[in-house]
Design a protein that fits this description.
The protein is mostly helical. The protein has one domain. The longest helix is centred in the C-terminal third of the chain and has 29 residues. Helices cover 69% and strands 2% of the residues.
Length: 190
Amino acid sequence: MLVDSRAPHRRLIMSKKKPSHADAELILSLYDLRRETVMRESRKTIASWVPRSFEDVIEITKLDDPRNAAWRQVSSYYEMAFGFARHGIVPADFLAENTGEGLLLYAKIEPHLKAFRKQVSPTAFRNAEWLVKKSPAAQERMKLLKKRLAAMLTANRKAERVLARSDSERAEEGEEQLTLALVEIGEGRP
C-alpha cells in the first residue's frame, strides 16, 4: 500500500493492480465463511429484505426486529470484506467481481445512506461506499444491481396489491376468468 504524501490528509492509494494467489485465497476464504449455517440463513434473510423507505431501514436496525441479528451479521461481514480493498489488502475490482451480494445490500441502503448516517451511525457503509466510488467493476455491478432491485420493488408492490384486494374481489375475478375460458372453448354463454 502506498501513501500519497501530497494529499493533506495522506490518502491511501491502491498499490496492487493484478490479483495474486494470496488474493485468490482470501476471496475463497470469504466464500467459505458465507457457507457457514448461521451466515447462510442471515444472508437469505437479508437477500429477501427489500426496503421501500427509510423507515424500513430503521426497522431492521432495531434490536427487537427478528431480522436484526441477520442485518448485523451480513452488513458487518461485507463491510469487513470491502475494507480489505479499501486498505489495499486485495484489489478492489477483484473483490467487487466476487461480492455481488454485498453490493446488492449497499444498493438497498444507498438511497437512504445520508439519513442513516445522520440518525444511526456516521461511519456506516464507508467501505462499501469507497469500493463503489473507486472500483470500475463495482460501478458496473451497481448499475445491474440497481436494475434488479427496482424489479424486486416492483414485484413486491404488485404482490402487495394482490394481497390487499378482498377475497370477494379475487373470487369475482376468478369467476369472470372462468366464464371467459368456458366461452373460448364453447362451453359457456357468449
